[in-house]
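Whiteboard transcription, Tuesday session. T.W. wrote the structure tokens on the left side:
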């Protein structure tokens, strides 16, 4: 087993152990369970960083293609999640976020394990790299925003029914979940905006077109930008909070899921930005 294969396996094991730790902490709060989840996640992220570094050294470029993107997305989800965990001092979201990280890494692991020659990037333009990295950071933040929104609705449902049970005993307050949703959505929107700008510049360089957002491969990204722009405008201008903001986050992430994994990966042949 080579270094690359070993790192793939060890990263998957660390993420799986972290998912178990966070799930156990969610089931029954305990400092030891929470620490196992957190430190296993940090350890997995460290080995994951080494794996991505190995691929970058082997190819001479950051491997921004469909084979590695799920793993890179998982790496960035961890970055965003750890930031939110440290700033909110709450580990509840880890029970849903870390399994997503583990699944994304495993999706890429099947492509990377046993691969003799690391995948190479077709495009090397700086704008191409910028647009891909910006989108992945945005997707990572939106995923966490969506998870916090789902938890918000579950907790709100118990409170409205005056049946304070499973979720009330395990989730942070509605205010904390609303704060996480707002921070993650704002973080994601900033990077989504950067990605849209970088995509426009790169598409102009490659396709010599000023406007490409009417094409099927690009339109969902613009739609996601409009939804999240409306989401943040509703918060800042109209004062939307709580249930309506949570529903907007879930709808926005559904569009993002369609825009990237469905259009970008499953139909990559129709998308000039991904090979």
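and on the right, the sequence the group agreed on:
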């Amino acid at each position: 087993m080579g270094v690359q294969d070993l790192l793939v396996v060890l990263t998957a094991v660390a993420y799986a152990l972290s998912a178990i730790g966070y799930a156990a902490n969610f089931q029954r709060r305990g400092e030891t369970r929470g620490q196992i989840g957190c430190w296993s996640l940090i350890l997995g992220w460290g080995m994951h960083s080494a794996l991505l570094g190995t691929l970058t050294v082997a190819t001479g470029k950051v491997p921004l293609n469909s084979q590695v993107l799920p793993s890179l997305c998982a790496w960035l989800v961890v970055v965003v999640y750890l930031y939110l965990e440290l700033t909110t001092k709450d580990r509840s979201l880890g029970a849903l976020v870390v399994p997503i990280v583990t699944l994304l890494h495993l999706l890429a692991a099947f492509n990377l394990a046993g691969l003799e020659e690391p995948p190479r990037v077709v495009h090397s333009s700086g704008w191409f790299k910028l647009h891909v990295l910006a989108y992945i950071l945005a997707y990572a933040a939106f995923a966490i925003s969506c998870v916090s929104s789902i938890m918000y609705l579950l907790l709100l449902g118990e409170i409205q029914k005056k049946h304070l049970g499973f979720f009330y005993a395990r989730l942070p307050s509605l205010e904390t979940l609303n704060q996480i949703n707002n921070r993650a959505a704002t973080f994601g929107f900033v990077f989504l905006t950067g990605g849209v700008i970088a995509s426009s510049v790169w598409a102009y360089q490659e396709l010599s077109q000023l406007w490409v957002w009417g094409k099927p491969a690009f339109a969902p990204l613009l739609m996601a930008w409009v939804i999240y722009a409306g989401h943040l405008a509703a918060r800042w201008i109209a004062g939307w909070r709580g249930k309506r903001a949570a529903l907007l986050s879930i709808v926005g992430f559904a569009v993002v899921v369609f825009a990237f994994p469905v259009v970008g990966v499953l139909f990559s042949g129709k998308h000039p930005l991904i090979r």
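Someone added at the bottom: DSSP finds nine helices and no strands in the chain.
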